Amino acid sequence: LRTENRIWDRGILDWTEFTENAGSLLSRRQSKTAAKYIDESHKQLGGENPVYFADLLPAGLHWRFFPEFRRQSVYLDIETTGMESVSAITTISMYDGNRIRWYVDGDNLESFVDDIFNYKVVITYNGKGFDIPFIENQFRIKLNHAHIDLRYILAGMGFKGGLKGCERQLGVDRGLLAGVDGYFAVLLWNDYIRNGTDRALETLLAYNIEDTVNLEKLMVIAYNMKIKDTPFHRQNLLDFPLSPVLPFQPDLLTIERIKRDLFSW
Predict the structure, then answer these.
(1) Strand pairing report for 146-149 and 89-95
(2) Which residues contact 2 (CB under 8 A, 6 or more apart)?
């Protein structure tokens, strides 16, 4: 990063100019290495292969390839039964910036496997440690996507405290779902299974989908904050995404009923 800033300070802001001046900026060995990677990067960019860049960049710098592959990206979040020894996925939601998809155990959960491979980049919060291993284990598949995990990007910027904590710090409002968390999602699923309460399932799906929709907002916020530290921010800032029409709304009566049952217990 120090070398990169030194190059920018020289006023060199594009790859053609860099290549022409590489001899005065780097050692001969570094120049040869840079030339090899620049050539290969052009090929991989043209071939729309984000995995190449994800493998070379540390997790905290994965924001750099987001704009080039945004149209091939999907925001992903899962909910589970929460029982550690026998935990299973209850719902999955995906949002690609245009379309929302959701999957429910006992209904269409297996369809997720076909749909996820329509994308090249998966964007999560803490997905490297939770969502992706969980999915791969349950479905017996390997997700070979490039993976942008916002946990690492935001932590490097000083934002911690889980997805909800980062949302609060960055001004992303949860509205009616404020206060609902992963543990409460387990209670909603249990209520749906035990009592057949459709409103509990709809509230769970509203919560699960809200996670993915908010991931897009956090991704754009993080990207814009990071790009402002470079000489390229004037032409590369991204517009804040509009919120899509959500297919489910949380049921406040269901939320309050489950809270009362929890507190009374």
Answers:
(1) unpaired
(2) none
DSSP state of 14: S
Q: Are residues 51 and 145 in contact, defined by beta-carbon separation less than 8 angstroms? A: yes
DSSP annotation of 61: G
In whole angstroms, what is the distance from residue 121 CA to residue 42 CA? 18
Of 63, 60, 241, 252, the residue nearest 155 (C-alpha): 60
Pair 111, 230: CB distance under 8 Å: no
Backbone angles phi, psi at 98, to 5 degrees: -130, -50
Site of tokens 């960049």: 57
| Single-letter residue type at 182 | G
Q: Rounded CA gap, 112 and 98, in Å?
A: 17
**pLDDT tens for each residue of the chain, 265 residues long:** 899 999 999 999 999 999 999 989 999 999 999 999 999 999 999 999 999 999 999 999 999 999 999 999 999 999 999 876 679 999 999 999 999 999 999 999 999 999 999 999 999 999 999 999 999 999 999 999 999 999 999 999 999 999 999 999 999 999 889 889 999 999 999 999 999 999 999 999 999 999 999 999 999 999 999 999 999 988 899 999 999 999 999 999 999 999 888 776 5
Does the predicted model carry a pTM greater than 0.85? yes
> What does residue 167 show for φ and ψ, rounded to 5 degrees?
-60, -45
Count of CB atoms within 10 A of residue 206's CB? 22
103, 78 Cβ separation under 8 angstroms: no
**Which CA distances in Å does 246 have to 26, 170, 201, 213, 252?**
52, 21, 15, 9, 16
